[in-house]
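Shipment paperwork, digital attachment
Item: protein structure file
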Amino acid sequence: MLIVAAIALLSSVTGIPNRFALDDVSLIQDNARVHGLGGILDILTRAYWPPPFRPDLYRPAATLLHALQYTFGGGSPLAFHLVSVALYAGACVAVLHLAMRVLPRTAALAAAALFAAHPVHVEAVAEAVNQGELIVGLIAAVMTVIYLDARRAAPGGRPAPSTWIALACLYALAAASKENGFVLPGLLVAVEWCLVRDARSPRERVRALAPGFAALALVGVALLAVRTAVLSGDVVGAYTATALTGLSFGGRALTMLSVVPIWARLMLWPAHLQSDYSPNEVVASAGWGAAEAGGAAILLVVLAVALLARRRSPLVTFGIAWFGIMIFPVSNLLVPTSIVVAERVLFVPSAGFLLAVAGGAMAVASAWTARPVWLDPVVRTAAMALVGLGVGRSAARQPVWHDSARLARQTEIDAPRSLFVRQAHRDALAQLTAAYAERIAAAAEKWPIRNEFATLLRYMREDSLAAEQMRLSLEEHPEQPGLRAVLSDSLRGSASHGPNH
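Attachment content:
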């Protein structure tokens, strides 16, 4: 347990000094509703996004947690980042406890360690407003453990009423923290289908368990009704992503097929990460192409593996089911949402992915009776190497979320085609230009300020504008030999970047 918690800490500790970034600014720093505990009624009866924003989403538990952190932490980002890291470590330990119930100890530790080190989790941990994602992940693992233990303790009976009450309370907390919490009962159905051995007929099992699942369904319906009422009848409760606007079910399904390879890459090799997948990075599918065919092929293979493995390696089937259930809210199949791709929403599904991988590895190992003696040490070494790579990538990525400006600069590199990134770049450039124009106009000696402005422009990859400021600086103060060399570099950079820079 301590090993997994330590890996989670090493993967995220570099983000603790971060400030507020991106949505943190609107939802925490500038949101008077969470600047104390006097706004609890507003938190319970208003949308997640405060005015002047469109009243989207309803996450009272997550918002109340923000208010508590702001109150006891004095509004410091440090308090939020410490809580996020603690929630992350807790979720990783909970995944370990789940893995230890379905895997041998060493394999369970490997799966949980890889989960704790996985770089795709950085966004969920680094941005304070994503604590709802961490809460749902923690509760998903805890609910699964509670249900699995209860069913194994009474394989021919039913969980005690106290067990269902605990599950209902946890379910309500998860659903009030983030929308993907609403599908958590699906994980318990997957446990029953894949991991519980019960000699009774399916009809008898359904009859015995129906009251408990009906209670969970009642909690979900009640929370959905409250959410819909708060959002003035808007069941979806979120705007539609630009790439999905105006698409029929078929168009959405085709577009999401092109997203499946992105999910697969982020699960298997998350070397490249980006905070934005907006239009121009992911666009609506105009027809059947390579990306859509690749997505369909991946889905067909995964479905075939899930069906074939159910009897011989049920953990593989369970892990695949976990991934499918937890990704479904943002699959855009039932309703269009504001998300086409986002790394934070892969946090909870990734637990299922790693359980499936571990289950598959154990199935292969048990079937390979004549495997060479050197294979096990090689596999352990490879697993430790992957954990090390994951920790290193995660720790290096966390500081990218230090503040909105640093994140925007990195996103220009990570997602250069994003329309949102380009607009943010134009806005930032306009603000910077206006500010320095005032400073230059008021200064007696203008050339030092021009040099400072040019440095920032180069940092934004606006080499041609930087070169112009350096030329003016040299006209005003020619004795700057070092600046001439920098000007030469900027001119070369301007030529290589093209007219947009």
